[in-house]
Structure formats: C-alpha cells, structure tokens
Amino acid sequence: MHIHNADVAAVFTEIADLLEIENQNPFRIRAYRNAARTVEMLAPSVQTLVEEGRDLSELPGIGADLAGRITEIVHGGTCELREQLRRELPPGIGSLLRVPGLGPKRVKLLFDERGIHTPEQLLRAAQEGQLQTIRGLGEKAEQRILEAVQAQLSKERRFSIAVAGQVVEALVAYLRQLAPVARVEPAGSYRRMRETVGDLDIVVASADGPAVTGHFIRYDAVARVLSHGPTRASVELHNGMQVDLRVVEEASFGAALNYFTGSKAHNIELRKLALKRGLKLNEYGMFAGEQPLAGETEEAVFAALGLPFIAPELRENRGEIEAARDGRLPHLVTLHDLKGDLHAHTTASDGRSSLRDMAQEARSHGMTYLGITDHSQQLTVASGLDAERLAQQIDEIDQLNAELDGITVLKGTEVDIRQDGTLDLPDSILQRLDYAIASVHTRFGLGSEAQTARIMRAMDNRYVRILGHPSGRLLFEREPYPVDMGRIIRHAKECGCALELDSQPGRLDLNDIYCMMAKDEGVLVSIDSDAHSVLDFDNLRWGIGQARRGWLEKKNVLNTKTLAQLKAHWKH
Ligand code: DGT
Ligand code: CA
Ligand code: CA
Ligand code: ZN
C-alpha cells in the first residue's frame, strides 16, 4: 500500500482536530498540527524514509513520539491514537472546525445535541431551523452559521504543489507499470508549476482506453469514483484531491497534452492564432479542414503555428505567445544551473541537521557552495545566535572547510530586521561573515508605509546581500504583509541587494509576478532552499518552477554564479 506524506499529515490533522474538540492540552494539539504541516510539505516520501530506516526525528517538530506514530501510519495506514479517538467522535467532524465562527465547544455541542458531524449535515440542519432551538444558540447564531457553512462549502479547495508532486509521482508510476500505456504525463496547473493546484490532470496515450481508465479507478488511494468512461475518468483521492484522467491515441498525445496543460487563457490565444491561419486546433490535433497537420508531439503543434516550443511554466497568456512569435522567449533557468545554495539552517538555531551533514548533503545535490544562515538572537523560539555564538560558528566553519572537498561553506546569518529597520546583530560581527540575509519575522501588522521603510532601511546595511522571503506569506496560513514591493525592488537595484525566492513549498516567496518585476528592474533573485534539515534540499525544484513562471533566466539568478563570480560580485 502506498502511503503519501499527505496521508500521514491527514492522520495528524484529524488527531489534532479530535483532541481539540475533546478540549485537550493545547500544546499537544499544536504539536500534531505542526507535525502535519512538516510532513505534508516534506519533499522526500516519509514512507521511503521509514523503509530506509532513516531517523525521522531529524524533521523539524518531530520528536521520538511523533516519529513512532509516523512509522505506525506508514506500516498500517493509521495509528492507535487516531483509532482510539475515532471510537469517541466520528472521523470527519474536524472539518466543522474549518467553518468560520465554529470553535471546538460549538462543534461538540452540535454533535451532542443534533449528531451533526459534516458541513453538509450542518447546512441542512441550519436551513431547516434545527439549530435555533439548541440551548445557547438562537436564531441569529443559526443565521450566521448558515452563511458561514454555505461560504465554506462553495470555497474551492487547493493543494500545495509539493502535495501534488507526491501524488503525481506515485500515480504516474502506477499507471506506467500496470496499464497498457505508451505515454503518461501530468498536465494542468501542476505541469505549469503553479504554487497551488486545484486538481490534477493526467494525459495518457494508449490504444486501449477502457483498460487504462479501469485500471486508474482501482488505484488504492482512490476514495470515490466521480465519473468513469472508456477515454476519461475522474476520481477523488483519500486526501480530498481530485484527479482527471484523459486517454487519447498516440497520434493526438501532443495536442491533448497541450490542451490539458492550459492555461485556459493561453489555450484561447493559441486557438485564435490557429483560426487566423485558417487552421483548427483542439485536443486531437491541428487540422486544415479534415486534414491532420500535427498532434503527436507538442513541438509539432507549436511548429504548425510557426512557433518554437513554449515551456509549460510560461503558458499563462502573459505575452509568451508574442515572445515566441518574435523569437524573444527566455532561456529559462534550470535546477542544473544552480551552483550553490545561500540559505540553510543547522542545529545551532532551528535546523535539525549538523553543519557537517548539511554541507555534505548540499554537495551531493550538486552544490559547490552552501551558505549557513542560522537565525539571530531576537528569534528566541528558534534559538537564534548572538554575536558570541556566531563567532563560534565562524570558527567551526573554518575548521570544516579545511577538511571538506568539493564544497565551500559560506559564513552567513539570517539576521532579523527589528521593528525600526535596524538589524538584530552588530556590524562588528556581520563584517566577519561572507554575507547576511535580512528577514522580517516579527511585526507583520505594520502598515505598508512603515513596513516598506523598515525593510528598505535594513537593505541599506552594507553587509546585507539578500532580502529573505520578501513578502512574508505562508501559503494556506498567512497573507503577505502589506508592503510596496515595487519600491523595495527599485531599492534593491540601488543598493545591489538580491531578493530571495524561498523554495519551501509553503513559502515560494517571491511569487512569479514579483520575479518578473525583479527581472525587469535588473535585480538578481537568489533561489534558496531555506533548508532546515538534510531532507529539504529537494525543495529547490519548487523554487526553480516558480522562477521559471517568473521568466527568470540563468543570468537573473544570484546563485547560478560560481563561487569566484559570487565573491567578485560581493566585492562591490
Ligand atoms: P487548477 O486545477 O485549478 O489548479 O487549474 P488548471 O489549469 O489545472 O485547470 P483545470 O484542471 O480546470 O483544467 C486543466 C486544463 O484544461 C486547463 O488549464 C485548460 C484546459 N481547459 C479546461 N477547461 C477549458 C475550457 O473551458 N476551455 C479551454 N480552452 N481549455 C480548458
Ligand atoms: Ca487541474
Ligand atoms: Ca481538472
Ligand atoms: Zn526566515
């Protein structure tokens, strides 16, 4: 049985929900919520890690206890704690906690009084006026609940690209292995590397559609079959994600892949272009009348319109078709172009792996340098380093560099930007480092004017070479703080500071639009892992995906420089 990271995360989320409804210890509840997030966003599969006998307590927020539960889930699909909680409360009841205005007490009350444990039941009960008679509620409360649950039910659910990636890899392998397929490719927003994915779209070339769709709906992660026919099927997986599968003949594979990759806006423009040339473009191919001109490959479909291949990440109707027509398409940066990684933590602050392990792991990912940037003193929750501890780390790095071959460890810090825009460490220690990343980790609520001024002041410090995760957003969790990014980017140009693209799938900050703005202003972007353990370097693929969506080329990215080029760049 295949256990996705998202499945493990779902068990932890359910445990946290059930503990919360049972009014248990808030620290314990938070531990399960944090663990769910860590596992869900993790690049390597925890199932594989368990099978390889790796130490899971290397993961942030995972102690021995949680590591044991993960192992239990990987082996049996569930764990005893969840089963025990499920004997007391129905499993899906936690989804009611996501209805705005419903806390654990109300959820418990609704269940005890009316047996309600799903949003659909809640909607029906509210519509039928069954809630106003519960003691402590009343007509007004019922109306508010009705509106909240209606909004909740109509809200589109999206998933992290990292979660989609785990599902895609396992599902594509399953289809390749067992079904009579010639080609299988993910399409849709996942192929375009959007930071979040609404549903997954898979395109298959096969002469036996019914065998493929029949095989698809029997995949063990399928919870519900939504539709099923000879050439198409849709399912919902246990983690709530929908997957749409489409089967075509090999001769149409490129056209179908192109159609289902989208985006919709890009497709519409492409079809217009075909019409202008008297051609017809659909998911089966490019046609002149009834005569097929192209369809087997995407390259051939584009070529029939006189266009070169347009990378999927660009297909958002943001000028890519004109650029292709005029021979101005960017040569997009690739993972292979990265020479080093400039943002990583160790056990000195909130990382889970040692300095040495991080360096060796970065080297095995093809990096020639790794910047160690632990947090600074003000961030006490992350055991931030003061000047004295940082001085100690500088010595350790010197020793390590004397021993290691094939990678150079750079001395850095992720220094906190204080409320007034000064830095959390004195220049006397910063000047001993190779560089500093400055980041906002506090005071997200400042107004745009004050936040922008604060950040620009920090960038003025001569040792600050990179502004860390510039918008501060956490996908699904925290909106970006209000800030004038245009001004920050222009200021970065003036002071020669790079902007970070933090590759953690929950950040992906800068976003694609800001990457484009930085490129237009001639500001370099640093694509960093922000690794907190040796398992996090795989995140760089998501950062690269976002950078490509932002039209970035190798020359727009700071860490495509060799170490010698980087040091020369920082001399100025
Ligand atoms: P998502 O799933 O919300 O993250 O975004 P997409 O882009 O994956 O959208 P989805 O799954 O609805 O459809 C996949 C692709 O299929 C989409 O990018 C373009 C194509 N497509 C879907 N519906 C239409 C349509 O009505 N017209 C055209 N031209 N293309 C469509
Ligand atoms: Ca989709
Ligand atoms: Ca779809
Ligand atoms: Zn940070």
Automatic annotation (TrEMBL):
Coiled-coil stretches: none
Entry-linked Gene3D superfamilies: 5' to 3' exonuclease, C-terminal subdomain, Beta Polymerase, domain 2, DNA polymerase beta, N-terminal domain-like, DNA polymerase, thumb domain, Metal-dependent hydrolases
A Pfam cross-reference name: PHP
Stored InterPro entries: DNA-dir_DNA_pol_X (IPR002054), DNA_pol_lamdba_lyase_dom_sf (IPR027421), DNA_Pol_thumb_sf (IPR037160), DNA_pol_X_beta-like (IPR002008), HHH_MUS81 (IPR010996), Hlx-hairpin-Hlx_DNA-bd_motif (IPR003583), NT_sf (IPR043519), PHP_dom (IPR004013)
GO MF annotation list: class I DNA-(apurinic or apyrimidinic site) endonuclease activity; DNA binding; DNA-directed DNA polymerase activity; exonuclease activity; phosphoric ester hydrolase activity; zinc ion binding
SMART domains: HhH1 (SM00278), POLIIIAc (SM00481), POLXc (SM00483)
Residue ranges constituting the Polymerase/histidinol phosphatase N-terminal domain according to the UniProt record: 340-419
GO cellular component terms, A-Z: cytosol
S-adenosyl-L-methionine recorded as keyword: no
Location(s), subcellular: Cytoplasm
Swiss-Prot/TrEMBL cofactor(s): Mg(2+)
Catalyzed reactions per annotation: 2'-deoxyribonucleotide-(2'-deoxyribose 5'-phosphate)-2'-deoxyribonucleotide-DNA = a 3'-end 2'-deoxyribonucleotide-(2,3-dehydro-2,3-deoxyribose 5'-phosphate)-DNA + a 5'-end 5'-phospho-2'-deoxyribonucleoside-DNA + H(+); a 5'-end 2'-deoxyribose-2'-deoxyribonucleotide-DNA = (2E,4S)-4-hydroxypenten-2-al-5-phosphate + a 5'-end 5'-phospho-2'-deoxyribonucleoside-DNA + H(+); DNA(n) + a 2'-deoxyribonucleoside 5'-triphosphate = DNA(n+1) + diphosphate
Annotated EC: 2.7.7.7, 4.2.99.18
Domain Helix-hairpin-helix DNA-binding motif class: 54-73, 94-113, 129-148
Domain DNA-directed DNA polymerase X: 3-316
SUPFAM superfamilies reported for this sequence: DNA polymerase beta, N-terminal domain-like (SSF47802), Nucleotidyltransferase (SSF81301), PHP domain-like (SSF89550), RuvA domain 2-like (SSF47781)
Keyword annotations of the record: DNA damage, DNA repair, DNA replication, DNA synthesis, DNA-directed DNA polymerase, Exonuclease, Hydrolase, Methylation, Nuclease, Nucleotidyltransferase, Sodium, Transferase, Ubl conjugation
GO biological process assignments: DNA repair
Top-rank taxon, per record: Bacteria
Keyword DNA repair in record: yes
Record NCBIfam families: PRK08609.1
Biological role: Repair polymerase that plays a key role in base-excision repair. During this process, the damaged base is excised by specific DNA glycosylases, the DNA backbone is nicked at the abasic site by an apurinic/apyrimidic (AP) endonuclease, and POLB removes 5'-deoxyribose-phosphate from the preincised AP site acting as a 5'-deoxyribose-phosphate lyase (5'-dRP lyase); through its DNA polymerase activity, it adds one nucleotide to the 3' end of the arising single-nucleotide gap.
Protein name as annotated: DNA polymerase beta
Taxonomy of the source species: Bacteria, Pseudomonadati, Pseudomonadota, Betaproteobacteria, Burkholderiales
